[in-house]
Write a structure and sequence with these properties.
alpha/beta, 8 strands, two-stranded parallel ribbon, about 425 residues
């Protein structure tokens, strides 16, 4: 399956692009407003019922029926595969209410990853853990939670950010897979008419209002078999295995695009949009012809080709930011050259990612690669006195990075290391 570009994973525009669909949507708008007002009244009663009744099969059935009146239709496939002894469910992330939907089918808790605890956290159905300084600390806390007898299973979203659920999965974080040694994947598909199921940079309140406005939203939950950890698997390898399984079940691509790449994309869109608007609204400004307008018909092909090259670089150097890879590929138009540039320019990449200002700690790995490798000498405390010594230390550092990148590529594609060295 072709690797999608990063912008294909998210929806930034809510309104229908098709003219006929937009016309039908505008005709529906008065009906949608009436539904919105009625469902807000019903939604208050759904919230009160869910708070008043104890957690049980009866409460889940009643709330599920009332949610269908609100336009949230929940379906599930293969419910017999759901293991009642499992302590951790792993799901893809599409909307800001995924945990509420899965909680209608089975009792589980989802911790609040980002945001302060309080009434809003509790009202949205999240589990309060308090302020955590790091993901590793949260993993340890959840690990203790799972070992306590009688606690409900956990539901975690390793993508840590929502996507449109149609083209690809974000790279799974490894920390959720340090909680338990066996997980049950849950594939979630969300569909609704007229508009996307989720729009980036939209608050959960606004998304809830749109959910009540639209005639219906169908949530399909598919239970997959439990996946145990193999003894030789690290947390990241365990995460990659579950990610591949979910991507095949959903029929979408498994990408190396991370949560930070999405944040960079949103930041870039925030800065580009105002500049474009201001330049087009200049007094007396005339529209300028684009110097690459003759390449417009092939822009889609070029985007796909660029996405494939970025994916190849990501497989070798997964921790390098998406924006740096794309910028270097724009100059070189060659995967091998870009990998070489990123390996040789490690210090410059660190400075560039920090914005070129402030104090940046010098480090030799590329953008935070933390895999074990031979020590590099001389260190900052034993800086070489002669140019020859400094040159040798640079060569040793390059060789260590090359060996690490080569090992990652061989392990990723299952190649024979002896055969690769022979060539």
């Amino acid at each position: 399956m072709a690797t999608p570009g990063i912008e294909q994973l998210f929806d930034f525009q809510r309104w229908p692009r098709d003219g006929l669909l937009l016309f039908v949507f505008l005709l529906y708008a008065p009906v949608g407003l009436c539904l919105l007002l009625l469902r807000i009244f019903i939604g208050v009663h759904v919230f009160l019922v869910s708070c008043a009744l104890p957690d049980s099969l009866v409460r889940r059935f009643i709330v599920r029926v009332m949610c269908s009146v609100l336009g949230m239709c929940v379906k599930q496939s293969n419910p017999r595969l759901r293991d009642r002894n499992v302590k951790l469910y792993i799901s893809n992330h599409v909307t800001q209410f995924d945990h509420n939907i899965i909680n209608l089918l089975t009792s589980c808790n989802t911790p609040m990853l980002d945001g302060s605890p309080g009434f809003v956290c509790w009202a949205r159905g999240f589990m309060e853990l308090g302020m955590m300084s790091s993901r590793s600390e949260m993993a340890e806390c959840l690990k203790q939670y799972c070992t306590t007898e009688g606690n409900l299973p956990l539901l975690l979203f390793p993508e840590e950010e929502t996507t449109n659920g149609r083209t690809g999965l974000l790279k799974f974080s490894s920390w959720p897979f340090a909680v338990t040694d066996s997980v049950q994947p849950v594939a979630l598909i969300v569909k609704r008419p007229f508009i996307p199921a989720n729009t980036e940079e939209s608050s959960w309140i606004l998304e809830l209002l749109w959910t009540l406005f639209i005639p219906f939203t169908v949530y399909q939950v598919r239970w997959l078999p439990v996946v145990p950890r193999q003894d030789s698997h690290t947390n990241q390898e365990f995460a990659n295995k579950v990610q591949e399984m979910l991507s095949k079940e959903l029929g979408i691509a498994s990408t190396q695009i991370t949560r930070s790449d999405k944040a960079e994309l949103i930041k870039r869109k925030r800065h580009v949009a105002p500049q474009t608007t201001n330049s087009n609204q200049s007094v007396g400004a005339r529209p300028r012809a684009s110097p690459v307008s003759f390449m417009a018909p092939n822009s889609g092909v070029e985007d796909v080709r660029m996405a494939q090259m970025i994916q190849q670089v990501k497989e070798v150097l997964p921790d390098v930011p998406f924006s740096i890879i794309k910028r270097d590929l724009g100059r070189t138009n060659c995967v091998d050259t870009t990998i070489t540039n990123l390996l040789e320019g490690a210090e410059e990449l660190v400075l560039d990612s920090a914005g070129g200002s402030g104090s940046v700690p010098a480090r030799s790995p590329v953008s935070g690669i933390t895999a074990p490798r031979p020590p590099v000498k001389p260190t900052s405390k034993t800086f070489g006195k002669s140019p020859a010594d400094r040159h040798m230390s640079l060569q040793e550092r390059k060789e260590a990075l090359y060996d690490y990148a080569r090992r990652r590529y061989i392990e990723k594609h299952g190649l024979n290391q002896d055969t690769d060295k022979a060539h």
